[in-house]
# Entry
Amino acid sequence: MGDITVRRVNYGYFIRPAEETGTGQQRAEPTLGYLVTHPWAGNILVDTGMGGNPEVDAWYRPMRIPLPAALKAAGATPADIKAVVNCHLHFDHCGGNPQLAGRPVFAQRSELALARAPESHTLPDLVDHPDAHIEELDGEAEIAPGVHIIPTPGHTAGHQSLVIRRSDGTVIVAGQSHDNANLFTTDALSHQTGAAPHPAWLPHLLSLDPKQIYFAHDNAIWTPA
# Structure
């Protein structure tokens, strides 16, 4: 049996307004997904790109790469996708879900509760679209041999990450557990030194001995010191 591969999928970018950056200045951010190809379980897609509506587009000014074009650049087509893992259900992570209708979509039950609340933090038609097949999780789950979902709450209560155990080491797709690799480094050092608080799940994630960690809004890849 061959190894599991992980390929980046580029969905474009958006402009995060100054009100959301904490710096007083707007910031351009990439929107990235990851194509995980399992030797017998097939292609698992982590995040599906940016959805939108006039209000979202006016606020974030996205430059979208459509799902078929983004997958083509990564060597796949929508028909090749066997399952979807959304790290969470904001518009920029589940925008292509309706184009993959019928495929199982793995999401935490707590995240779905947020998405379906009256004051929803996402666009409901991206979640409960026609022929949606949502696999609701309560915590960790193995979705294919060597491929595990683990909860990493913080950005949202139901945020989750994907752990991929390859023959050459463990790779983690951490989505938006952190906005960028540098912020993850800060939390990892806080855990190691006791210098500052860090997410409660971080020791468990680091205990998996990751060789690389990928993020949804950063081209940089975290590696251990």
Q: What stands out?
A: The helical segments are 18-21, 54-60, 67-73, 109-115, 124-127, 181-193, 202-207.
